[in-house]
Amino acid sequence: MKDVFGKAVLDFQKENYTEDIITFSSLDEEDVIPVPYLFRSFKEMPMLEQEALKLCKGSVLDIGCGAGSHSLYLQENGFSVTALDYSKGAIETCSLRGIKDVVYTDIYSFKHKKFDTLLLLMNGIGIVGELNNTTKFFDHIKTLMNPGAQVLLDSSDIIYMFEEDEDGGVWVPDTGSYYGEIEFEMQYKDEKSDSFFWLYLDYKTLEMAAEASGFNCQLVRNGEHYDYLAKLWLK
């Protein structure tokens, strides 16, 4: 896949920042990801991200680390942290920022190492893509967990993006798939990525999927707008 995201963060790291990432989605929404925001400090992070970082324990695997802001904070605070991403540019950026342990791979190819905390922030569960992939994902991350390990993730219920009818119900198109499965493309400068699916999970759906795969699931905190932080651990 074209590494549009990686080129954007690497440009920023190398002080070549001139424009942001544009996203196009199957919800007919065009949006912007401000690249400087991906390099935010702990104080600039949303409440849910700060809470998740405070809950980290032991060795940490930062899955989908992006530009590495969460990994960098943890490393600076004495944690043994591994930053993992499938974006080559993102991993190079993490290295340039001083993160010691970086891994360029997709999560399913990462094996033979175990951690005390698995971190999936900025809707990190989105990498699952589609709801029917959750079992495969949960089965794999079990192999990366030490006894007593935890998974910390945030996500959003995007039901608010659909139209409300006169009775207060929400009209969701009958596509035959879960409404949180969104198809995206990203554009940076003149290059556009291949399309990919990104999953947004409401908490109840996450809880059911996690429990079906042998996890306990706890709602740690709700955010300010349909988002939440959850903690998972094996039964």
Blueprint of the fold:
Blueprint: H1 4-13, E1 21-25, E2 30-33, H2 47-55, E3 60-63, H3 69-76, E4 81-85, H4 88-96, E5 101-104, E6 115-120, H5 134-142, E7 145-156, E8 163-164, E9 170-171, E10 181-188, E11 191-192, E12 196-199, H6 203-212, E13 215-222, E14 227-234
Parallel strand pairs: 3-4, 3-6, 4-5, 6-7
Antiparallel strand pairs: 1-2, 1-10, 7-14, 8-9, 10-11, 10-12, 13-14
Helix pairs in contact: 1-4
Descriptive account of the structure:
Strand 3, helix 3 (about 70-75) and strand 4 form a beta-alpha-beta unit. The longest helix has 10 residues, at about 5-15. This protein has one domain: Vaccinia Virus protein VP39 (Rossmann fold), CATH 3.40.50. Helix 1 packs parallel to helix 4 (about 90-95). The chain has a seven-stranded mixed sheet with strand order 5-4-3-6-7-14-13, with helices on both faces. It is globular and about 45 Å long. It has helices at about 5-15, 45-55, 70-75, 90-95, 135-140, 205-210, and strands at about 20-25, 30-35, 60-65, 80-85, 100-105, 115-120, 145-155, 165, 170, 180-190, 190, 195-200, 215-220, 225-235. It is about 25% helix and about 30% strand. The protein has about 240 residues and is an alpha/beta fold. The mean pLDDT is about 95.
